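Consider the tokenized backbone below.
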């Protein structure tokens, strides 16, 4: 898998959604997890996080959009149903990304949307559960950024395997190929 990613949510209020989203982030290999303006009572992993993700990936709890401190070069990707949002199947995932989802019964705040580099929507008929939406986005990133064979044209497994990645030899600081390698 290339690059890194994080996932988080703004304004969460339900512990089960937090735990399920954290567990999915851990399963898909997130580099960190975060909340923004989450209710104090849910700022620790609930029992629905059976993988105990805080022991495996850093978790940040920011009080507001203004206090968010993402790594340099990390692009913020909002997941929100708006007319201007990019359909997830057409979206090119940034190499370094933090995906942020909105609260259970609401939307990303105007301040969060303003801060986003991209806004993406999952093409569904209506809003889905925040934890489910997060898992779909992480799966799409995994599928897009991983090295998988192209999908089969008909049902079943692909007929052509993806070739293995081959690294080049060492290169000196001057840009010349090092002899003997």
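A designed sequence for it:
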């Amino acid at each position: 898998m290339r690059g890194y990613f994080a996932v988080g949510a703004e304004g969460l209020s339900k512990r089960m959604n937090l735990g399920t989203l954290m567990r999915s982030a851990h399963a898909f290999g997130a580099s960190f997890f975060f909340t923004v303006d989450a209710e104090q009572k849910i700022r620790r992993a609930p029992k629905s996080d059976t993988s105990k993700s805080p022991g495996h990936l850093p978790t940040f709890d920011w009080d507001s959009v203004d206090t968010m401190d993402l790594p340099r070069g990390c692009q913020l990707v909002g997941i929100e149903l708006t007319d201007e949002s990019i359909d997830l199947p057409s979206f090119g995932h940034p190499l370094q990304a933090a995906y942020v989802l909105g609260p259970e019964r609401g939307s990303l705040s105007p301040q969060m949307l303003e801060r986003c580099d991209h806004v993406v929507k999952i093409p569904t008929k209506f809003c889905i559960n925040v934890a489910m939406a997060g898992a779909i986005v992480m799966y799409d990133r995994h599928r897009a950024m991983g090295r998988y064979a192209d999908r089969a044209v008909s049902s079943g497994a692909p007929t052509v395997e993806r070739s293995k990645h081959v690294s080049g030899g060492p290169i000196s600081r001057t840009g010349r190929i090092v002899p003997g390698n």
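Residues 4-145 form a domain with the Alpha/beta knot fold (CATH 3.40.1280.10).
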